[in-house]
Batch of 2 targets.
Target 1
Amino acid sequence: MSFSRRHILSVGATGLAAAMATAPKSLAQTQQPVAPAITVNLQGASADKVVLITGATSGIGKTTAEAFASQGAKVFFCGRRENLGAQVEQGIRAMGGEATYRRADVRNAREMQAFVEACVAKYGRLDIAFNNAGIDYPPAPTADTKVEEFDDLMNTNARGVFLGMKYEIPHLLKTGKGVIINMASIGGQRAFPNIIGYGASKAAVIHMTKMAAQEYGTLRINAVSPGTINTPMLDRVKRDWQVTEEQLVAPYPMQRVGQASEVANLVLWLASDAASYISGGQFSVDGGGLG
Ligand SMILES: NC(=O)c1ccc[n+]([C@@H]2O[C@H](COP(=O)([O-])OP(=O)(O)OC[C@H]3O[C@@H](n4cnc5c(N)ncnc54)[C@H](OP(=O)(O)O)[C@@H]3O)[C@@H](O)[C@H]2O)c1
């Protein structure tokens, strides 16, 4: 049995690790692997982690909160709609998970600081933060965009992420290997018309992510950029833009909307030790590379 380059390419890295494990003893003893054995296994990767999520009363945040809780994490989350927050918390507890909702508006510095402090007071520390909360507004060209709407987009989507990181980082540094994942969008990577506030706020998220990663080398700070994901926000987009789902997905090679769980999978992976050498990046989850 030999490990030619062709063989490695054909079996892939995990295939190689498996092959090494079952290789004849003499070979395993003489041939040292160039990297540690690959142990990617997300089952249990989040067990006992304390995870803070902004905007988990619906959509991607809710699904990600459920996913982390199903893996044994303790989830502390916010959103402004208290009835939905209580429902999400109860739903997770009914599944046997651990979650706590606290109302907080990410635009408000005092509320964000109190939210982060309350998480640490409740669960003792902070390991992972997912700054996800975000809003959209109906499309308009720049000259027709309302100043209040532009300000709200920047305050929620960009300032909210800044405030999150500002108050999370001191606690994450205490763990020695804290993780932040910020919610961007393909709208922050590519210049789409008629969403100047949304696009600018998400571009700011990507840039802030890279800057913070430069500042804190012991943390891992990354951004995710979804394409068109099936959430209440997408329902609003279809209504406000007066477009069908087919029209929305037409430019995407995969020709379908993504599911919130497909974003959650990326977030959980980035949060896990499997992504231990990844920081300062931004990762598209958009069905084929529009970003
Ligand atoms: N769906 C997509 O196609 C798509 C694509 C790219 C990026 N994204 C981004 O993904 C994130 C989640 O969006 P979604 O699609 O899941 O939409 P969603 O269902 O509308 O969820 C948005 C979440 O953000 C929370 N939120 C909004 N403003 C807030 C504020 N001021 N303070 C605290 N929480 C706030 C909402 O909670 P409350 O209303 O209860 O406050 C809700 O939980 C957003 O940042 C969005 O820009 C979505």
Note: The beta strands are 50-54, 74-77, 98-101, 128-131, 179-183, 220-226, 282-285.
Target 2
Amino acid sequence: MDIATLSQWRSAEPRVLLVGTGGMLARAWERLLLQCSVPVVCPTLTELDLTQPETLKQTIVPGIRLVLNCAAWTDVDGAETKEAQALAVNGRGVEHLARRCREIGAMLAHYSTDYVFAGTASTPYRVDEPRAPLNAYGRSKAAGEVALQASGCRHLLIRTSWLYAPWGNNFVRTMTRLARTKPMLKVVNDQHGRPTSAEHLAATTLALIEKQATGTYHVTDGGQCTWYDFAVQIAAAANPQCRVEACTTAQFPRPARRPAYSVLDLSQTEALVGPMPDWRANLDDVIKRMEPVG
Ligand SMILES: NC(=O)c1ccc[n+]([C@@H]2O[C@H](COP(=O)([O-])OP(=O)(O)OC[C@H]3O[C@@H](n4cnc5c(N)ncnc54)[C@H](OP(=O)(O)O)[C@@H]3O)[C@@H](O)[C@H]2O)c1
């Protein structure tokens, strides 16, 4: 069953529905679909709440061919004390969504995280590596992956990491604001990963969908770095006078444990849609278009 191609979605009746309107990645999708002249249904949280299955039935109606799930409980530290709430959205919410998509024959594109892995590896995590999350958020996202894979719904499960965009709450915007207001920043240098531009993620997801890809893929920017490396690059653009110093995770304790190494292997994705641009190139592009950071 073909889920359709871009040209088929350019119908008067919307065929695409976006869950998580207003979030960082959802905004990237809205812009991309607008540029492609694809109409999209963007329900509010009241109209579509992943924890309220009856809202899914009312809003995700026959005729919808593709559901893009950008919604999640994304407060990693908050999930440590509110694991049940995180699980209700990231675990059971995905189960409800996959069931509804299967009922109406829609494809579900869903996002997960590098935090489903323990971070003890020293080479990039392949898509089929066993999940072993270190924190409550990771457990809730892992539960969503399991539910989706067991659902029988045609799906694309995309793991990503360290998301940033010109808008929303993200590390690039936070570091930009801090670099402009503080003479020195300390940033952890012992967590390794891959930053990901939300716009690049949406565009790559679209490319995968157009290739009729299903199953699990990893999508991030190319290259890899530590949060410190990432911050150095951001601060240099925001305020070269600001000094960035490296510190350890132990010196900067947070409620949720983070994986030390969560570099996602991109080989399967790159084989289908070509190489992922280096994170420095994507970052430069985002910095140029950054919305005011306040
Ligand atoms: N941010 C990252 O660094 C990162 C890294 C790896 C993976 N991911 C994954 O990438 C995806 C997109 O992340 P993001 O950073 O764009 O997220 P985000 O900016 O936090 O947006 C999440 C959206 O989901 C909505 N939402 C929360 N609970 C909901 C519910 N019960 N029903 C419907 N919508 C609900 C939120 O609404 P409210 O704002 O009203 O709560 C918000 O609009 C998520 O799956 C996330 O787990 C993100």
Note: The radius of gyration is 19 Å.
